[in-house]
C-alpha cells in the first residue's frame, strides 16, 4: 500500500489530534490553518470517560497536566456582587481540565515534527477524481491529496465547499457569546468564577493561569444575526451595543474587550447532517456535529472522533468509503447523546422575568438536593455512550 497523503483543514484540536494518529499509522499529513498560528485563549475544556482513554493512549496526559486547571467554585451574584446562589462543585469540571489554547499548543507540539503545517492559508476549491483530490488554496499552489478532512469548526470551509451552504446544517439555539482574556481585576482565587445574569444576558468572569489573568464571557439571547465571521471589529461593536448600560462589572469588561487580542465571538449552535463524508472528503469535530458549548463535550467528541477515524482508515487500507462509514456509525450515538445535553439552554439564559426568577431559585436549592449529583453525572453518562476499539 502506497503512503497516503491526507490534508486536514483546521489546526485547533480536532485536526492535530487526527494528525497524531495518522502519523502513527504511516500516513503523510498536511494541516492547513487560516490563522497565522495556533490560536490562543478560549475557555476551559475538560475530559472524562473514553476521551481520557484516548489521551492516555496518546501518552500525552503528562504534557496536558503541566497546564492543568481546575474550575473552582462558581457563584451567581447580583449587581452589587452579593451572592445569589452557587453551582454544585464539580459541575463544570471533568477528570482533566485545560484551557483550549493550551491544549491546542500541546497537540501542535506533539505533531509538528511529523506533520506539515501551513498557516495563514485556506482551501478555495476541491476537485475530486478516481485517484484523489486536487486542492486549490488562497495563497499556496494547488496540490493533490488522497483524502481531505474538514476539522475546521462550526463554520467549516470544507463543509461549505463539499456539502453546500452552512444554513442547511446549522441549528441556532438562540444565544450568542463572546469570550476574551482580561487581567484578574476582581482578584479571583483558585480558578473561581462569578456569573451575573439579567434578562436575556449572562456575564461570567473566571480566574485563569494560576490566578494571573481571567477569562470573561458575555452571553446574550437573540434570533439569528447576519454578520461577518471574520470581522472582529464588527463583532466587538455588536457585543458593545448589546451590553452598554448594563450594571455589575460590565463597563470594565467592555473596556478590556476593546483591546483583547484573543477575542472570540460566535453563535451557540449545533450542526446536524445526514452524512459526514462525500467521496474522498470527510468531516470531523464541530464541522460534522457541533453540539454547542452548552454541551461541554465538543472537545471530547473531537478527540474521540480523531482516534476512531484514523484507526478505521488504517484498518480499511485503500477502502476509504468503508472507513468513513465505520467511523460515522461508531460516532453517531455519542453525538446524539452530547447534542441532547444542550437542551434547555433557555434556562441558562432566561428571556422572561418569571424564568429568570425561577432559575435563580433552582440554583439556590440545587446544591442541597439529589439533583446535584444528577447534573454532574449527566455529561459522564453521555461520554460513556461509546466504547473504543483497540486499533
UniProtKB/TrEMBL annotation:
A GO molecular-function annotation: FAD binding
InterPro entries: FAD-bd (IPR002938), FAD/NAD-bd_sf (IPR036188), FAD_aromatic-hydroxylase (IPR051704)
Protein name in the entry: FAD-dependent oxidoreductase
Domain of life the protein comes from: Bacteria
Domain FAD-binding, chain residue ranges per copy: 5-318
Annotated PANTHER family: MONOOXYGENASE, OXIDOREDUCTASE-RELATED
Pfam families for this protein: FAD_binding_3
Amino acid at each position: 500500500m502506497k503512503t497516503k497523503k491526507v490534508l486536514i483543514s483546521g489546526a485547533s484540536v480536532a485536526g492535530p489530534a487526527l494528525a497524531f494518529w495518522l502519523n502513527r499509522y504511516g500516513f503523510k499529513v498536511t494541516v492547513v490553518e487560516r490563522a497565522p498560528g495556533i490560536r490562543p485563549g478560549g475557555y476551559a475544556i475538560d475530559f472524562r470517560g473514553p476521551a481520557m482513554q484516548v489521551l492516555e493512549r496518546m501518552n500525552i496526559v503528562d504534557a496536558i497536566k503541566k497546564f492543568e486547571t481546575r474550575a473552582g467554585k462558581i457563584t451567581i451574584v447580583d449587581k452589587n456582587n452579593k451572592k445569589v446562589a452557587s453551582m454544585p462543585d464539580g459541575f463544570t469540571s471533568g477528570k482533566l481540565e485545560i484551557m483550549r489554547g493550551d491544549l491546542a499548543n500541546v497537540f501542535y507540539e506533539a505533531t509538528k515534527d511529523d506533520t506539515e503545517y501551513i498557516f495563514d492559508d485556506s482551501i478555495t476549491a476541491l476537485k475530486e477524481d478516481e485517484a484523489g483530490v486536487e486542492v486549490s488554496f488562497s495563497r499556496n499552489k494547488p496540490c493533490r491529496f488522497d483524502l481531505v478532512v474538514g476539522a475546521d469548526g462550526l463554520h467549516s470551509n470544507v463543509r461549505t465547499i463539499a456539502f453546500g451552504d452552512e444554513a442547511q446544517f446549522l441549528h441556532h439555539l438562540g444565544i450568542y457569546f463572546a469570550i476574551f482574556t482580561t487581567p484578574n481585576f476582581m482578584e479571583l482565587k483558585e480558578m473561581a468564577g462569578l456569573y451575573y445574569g439579567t434578562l436575556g444576558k449572562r456575564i461570567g468572569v473566571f480566574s485563569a493561569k494560576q490566578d494571573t489573568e481571567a477569562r470573561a464571557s458575555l452571553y446574550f439571547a437573540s434570533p439569528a444575526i447576519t454578520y461577518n465571521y471574520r470581522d472582529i471589529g464588527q463583532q466587538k461593536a455588536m457585543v458593545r451595543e448589546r451590553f452598554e448600560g448594563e450594571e455589575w462589572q460590565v463597563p470594565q469588561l467592555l473596556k478590556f474587550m476593546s483591546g483583547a487580542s484573543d477575542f472570540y465571538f460566535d453563535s451557540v449552535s449545533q450542526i446536524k447532517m445526514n452524512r459526514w463524508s462525500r467521496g474522498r472528503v470527510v468531516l470531523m469535530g464541530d464541522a460534522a456535529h457541533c453540539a454547542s458549548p452548552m454541551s461541554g463535550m465538543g472537545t471530547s467528541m473531537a478527540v474521540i472522533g480523531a482516534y476512531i477515524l484514523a484507526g478505521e482508515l488504517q484498518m480499511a487500507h485503500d477502502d476509504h468509503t468503508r472507513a468513513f462509514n465505520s467511523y460515522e456509525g461508531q460516532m453517531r450515538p455519542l453525538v446524539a447523546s452530547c447534542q441532547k445535553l444542550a437542551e434547555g439552554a433557555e434556562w441558562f439564559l432566561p428571556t422572561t422575568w418569571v424564568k429568570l426568577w425561577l432559575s435563580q431559585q433552582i440554583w439556590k436549592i440545587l446544591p442541597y438536593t439529589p439533583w446535584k449529583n444528577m447534573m454532574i453525572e449527566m455529561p459522564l453518562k453521555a461520554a460513556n455512550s461509546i466504547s473504543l476499539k483497540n486499533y
